[in-house]
Design brief:
It is an enzyme of class 1 (oxidoreductase). This protein is α+β, with helices and mostly antiparallel strands and 353 residues long. Helix content is 29%, strand content 22%. It contains eight helices and ten strands. Strands 1, 2, 3, 4, 5, 6, 7, 8, 9 and 10 form a ten-stranded antiparallel β-sheet that branches. The longest helix has 26 residues.
Length: 353
């Protein structure tokens, strides 16, 4: 066999170029995503760093909603949404759920009375393995509608090193420069820390699309509303009264929430969580979330779940809301940090004051 002539210098460089270009492009893409090419660019790491700075260093815990408790049960579908979404979770029947109640903030030891907001995250697992993950909060509207404004709010809320508390002037300046926060501020003025996770309504706030078998799409927002519960007269004693109240209620029987889907009308803002929809919009009860068990988060099934709101089954799709991909990226960064530190959780619990 005749040996091929050696490549010229130009041909050799050309081959190296064909190999190297994809590598360089990939490296550049990674650098862009992580902000290495532009140190001033907003990245998931910067968002999570800021969240962590507000609550202190607590290895092994989430960087937001750090204090929580795991719950489990099932979702009993009413079948009423089957015509609007091809997701199996909306077909008649039961779908297992693993959830988590929590407080906002990065401090896993914060007193339950420290903030008026409670959160509720759920993971629905269909028989075909597809999952629907969602995080909801006990407030009717999100303060802002963009990632940049959310980051600015985090910076304005960072503790002042001299006082250990947020600087009121910085917060006032933020709200003055973001008039879209007015509905949220109006709610905050009357909001009080509830005495029970079980008595709260939790709103998804971001909009999504239901996708029917024929491809038709309908923009929706969802919430869960408690069914058949008695509000606590007063909050329990101690810093952890919410978890104790939850355990006592579950000991008496399962807790239930109606999962309601509210349909957007033409012209309703779909891509801005700071804009509310009129209360008269069509709503359908998709079914009932039933919880029958609570477990401390250190050992519970929710501990290692990333409640990324963009993890969806076929039949539910994300909207163009910019907060959704930002939440997904920040959750992923927080997840990687805490799972890399999870061995420190037991030690941290032992050191808890």
């Amino acid at each position: 066999m005749t040996k091929p002539p050696p490549l010229s210098t130009g041909a050799t460089l050309a081959r190296y170029g064909l190999i190297g270009v994809p590598v360089v492009v990939l490296a550049a893409a990674m650098a862009y995503v992580h902000g290495w090419l532009d140190p001033g660019r907003l990245t998931p790491e910067r968002i999570v760093d800021t969240l962590q700075a507000s609550g202190g260093d607590h290895p092994g815990y989430r960087r937001n909603h750090a204090k929580g408790v795991c719950v489990s049960g099932w979702f009993e579908s009413s079948g009423q949404l089957a015509r609007y979404s091809k997701a199996d979770v909306f077909a008649p029947g039961r779908t297992p759920v693993v959830g988590r109640f929590a407080l906002p903030g990065a401090n896993p030891y914060a007193p339950d009375s420290s903030v008026p907001i409670r959160s509720f995250a759920l993971r629905f697992t269909q028989a075909d393995g597809q999952q629907w993950r969602t995080g909801m909060n006990s407030m009717p509207v999100f303060p802002v509608g963009t990632t940049e404004a959310f980051f600015a709010s985090l910076q304005a809320s960072r503790p002042d090193p001299s006082t250990g508390k947020p600087n009121p002037a910085a917060q006032q300046a933020f709200f003055a420069s973001h008039p879209e926060t007015a509905p949220f501020l109006a709610w905050v003025k009357t909001a009080k820390p509830s005495a029970s996770f079980a008595t709260e309504r939790y709103d998804g706030l971001n909009a999504f699309y239901l996708v029917a078998a024929d491809g038709k799409r309908q923009a929706v927002r969802w919430d869960v509303e408690p069914v058949g519960v008695t509000p606590a007269a007063t909050a329990g004693e101690g810093a952890d009264f919410l978890e104790h109240d939850l355990e006592q209620r579950l000991a008496a029987g399962p807790l239930r929430w109606a999962l309601k889907m509210t349909f957007a009308a033409p012209g309703d803002p779909v891509d801005d969580a700071s804009k509310q929809w009129p209360q008269a919009r069509q709503a359908i009860v998709a079914g009932t979330v039933v919880l029958d068990r609570a477990v401390p988060q250190m050992d519970g099934p929710c501990r290692d779940i990333n409640y990324d709101p963009t993890v969806l089954p076929q039949g539910i799709e994300v909207s163009g809301d910019p907060l959704l991909p930002a939440r997904s990226a920040a959750y992923a960064d927080s997840y990687l940090r805490r799972t890399g530190e999870v061995d420190t959780l037991d030690t941290a619990q032992e050191r808890r004051p």
